[in-house]
Amino acid sequence: YSEYLKSTLKNKSKFKKMKVVLDCANGATYHVAPNLFWEIGCDIVSINNIPNGKNINLNCGAVNTKDLSKKVISEKAHIGFAFDGDGDRLIAVDEKGIEVDGDDLLALFAKNLLKSKKLNKKTVVATIMSNQGFENFLKNKLSVKLIRKNVGDINVISEMQKNNYNLGGEQSGHIILGKYMSTGDGILAALKVVEMLCDQRIKASKLFKLYDKYKQIKTNIKYTKKINKALEAKINKTTLIFKRKYKNLRFLVRKSGTEPLIRVLVEGKDEKIVNNISENLVSTIKRMTHG
Description:
Layout: H1 2-7, E1 19-23, H2 32-39, E2 43-47, H3 66-74, E3 79-83, E4 90-93, E5 99-100, H4 102-115, E6 123-127, H5 132-142, E7 145-149, H6 153-163, E8 167-169, E9 175-177, H7 186-200, H8 204-208, E10 215-222, H9 229-245, E11 250-255, E12 261-268, H10 271-289
Parallel strand pairs: 1-2, 1-3, 6-7
Antiparallel strand pairs: 3-4, 4-5, 8-9, 10-12, 11-12
């Protein structure tokens, strides 16, 4: 596995000056990632790399990059990478400690694949969660099409395989580089980012500064009432009213497939408006779902 990942890199002699912090989320990457980055010559600092069977993803890794941000700044590292427990997700942190999510990573990969004429059908596959700013960047700056699927990397992967697209992923950090793998792989994505950083000889913050994000507010509403068809229809109707009233905002209201939660996303350019409307919608739905 390690040897295969190394074989995806062009020139292995240029990583010597790179200082990289790895947050292994006390999970699957705890051993292989630090070794691999050390083998290609990076100066490595590892955190959360001592799994005990209970501390996997515990306030660390791709789900929480606070530790990683602090460490990147204190170590004066060039970049930091956070994997999740099973290693298929990647969230990065630039040299200033600013988080770089899956949308940012996909934007970077899209730009680079396009430049080398390797982006199949000039298309990227992501999900309904992806930022509107990211979609605008692809469309207006790169003339690249974005296909949005329902949340879940499996939905992205099957769309890619069905139509022979070679770049896809999720805002949460799944990055699928179809040329090398048919699934998300955090270490692979991190290696390719380090390669770009070395090639372009610029700071991580500059590498990732590709577009302005729209403000997104995500709220989870725990429900106590059983969500039957009538209540679901009522929630959908309410969402539709908001969509019609605030046409310059994007609304997503969906029932979680794994927990008793309704997930609400409100997105727009103006932070103040997004905050207000989000509060409004959330309190309206709360009143309906709490018995």
